[in-house]
Amino acid sequence: MGAENSHWHLELNYDQWVxxxxxxxxxxxxxxxxxxxxxxxxxxxxxxxxGRYLSDVQVFxxxxxxxxxxxxSTEPNVDKINDSLPxxxxxxxxxxxxxxxxNKLLLVGGHSKNISANLSVWFIDLESxxxxxxxxxxxxxxxxxxxxxxLVGSKxxxxxxxxxxxxxxxxxxxxxxxxxxxxxxxxxxTPPAPRFDHTAAxxxxxxxxxxxxxxxxxxxxxxxxxxxxxxxxxxxxxQGDLVTPRAGHAGITIDENWYIVGGGDNRSGAPETLVLxxxxxxxxxxxxxxxxxxxxSEGVSLSSLLLDGExxxxxxxxxxxxxxxxxxxxxxxxxxxxHPKIFQSPAAAAAAASVTAAYALSKSGKLEFSEMEDLxxxxxxxxxxxxxxxxxxxxxxxxxxxxxxxxxxxRADNSSFKGxxxxxxxxxxxxxxxxxxxxxxxxxxxxRCAKLxxxxxxxxxxxxxxxxxxxxxxxLRKQKSAWEHDMELASAVQRQSSGGxxxxxxx
Length: 507
Fold this sequence. Notes:
- It is a single chain.
- The chain is of the alpha+beta class and about 500 residues long.
- Helices cover about 30% and strands about 30% of the residues.
- The chain has four helices and 27 strands.
- Strands 6-10-9-8-7 form a five-stranded mixed sheet.
- A hairpin with a 2-residue loop joins strand 2 and strand 3.
- It is elongated, with a radius of gyration of 41 Å.
């Protein structure tokens, strides 16, 4: 699709990705960058390529379909803000987040070679292109990357991530954009497992949704919801299409629909483009691409812009065995926006109760239908709604069957995991026995070595005493020689004496 047509978006088919034909040179391919759309321009910041962090800022004009590089400058007082930070325009960073606030782009978190204990917030002035550090106060979070950031009014909500020591987190922090003050949000109930490279969205200015991500050992496809009014976590069941675990995906919301693209599990990329109706919690696979397609990548970015009154999705970058730098666009088909069923409608209490019951079922493994029925009838009477109870009960029965089916699958998975654990435990026991046997042999060899060392020590002592024995032998030999000499002398004298006597007698 060429740049000569300024209304290229009108030629797009609904719910299909198309690669744009761009003019000029493209930026270097990358993943785990940050992206944001301002007016009709897509801004790309940093990222990673071949283990190297990037620090550039690239701009793609979605009207002319041309790339350009943003030249940044340092504000005169930037070094006065925080003298401990290196004097550089923008640090090379990966796994960070970027969003528009006023006439600035704010860049939050991410991994870089600059060792910093606390989370940094940088800004890029869209008019002057000045760049610097935003001074924040309060309970500043520890530095991290792979976190999620969601803007709710003038509050920025951050969840999870991985710190510079590879410690995973599931904490919730909030930054007041008016005062630039950080605070920690304390929530109740069971939070999501610590994770990074997940995605987050906010529905009805009240509910924070967390989907997917990974730890160091597993990938997730679960959905968690934090009620920002009651500060309670819940884990509702996703209806609709089943999706595989993934991390490194990207998401963007349009009205009550949450579009999710890309991600993977370190073995293969996720080819589906998903849409989650946040009111009904129904997941739909919108379209799929090939397994080696750039859209089936980890570390891809997803943004949206408004052209001629229509929302357009814009995806860029990612890694799926190779680094990508293509721009893909999609024209999502307008979807019905009925009054929210789960969070806002008069049926909210009953639907929420069924979600809570489903969560209880997943924990206890047993839930009596009569309890669900009584609970929903009481809630219906309390709200004064004129529902068709028979119809609602039928729907709840169907939902119960779906939940029981899901529970059976979970139990089967648990049984499989238990078998693997038992097998691993048996292998561990065999290895422990073998280790004890080897340790016994080593102890016996140590004992033998100790005895040999004692014998060697005695022999060394004997060898050391050999010179004194030899000296004694030499002395004895000398004494023997002297004694033999004395004996010979004595014999000679005796012979002379004897001869004289006989001579005297003969005379």
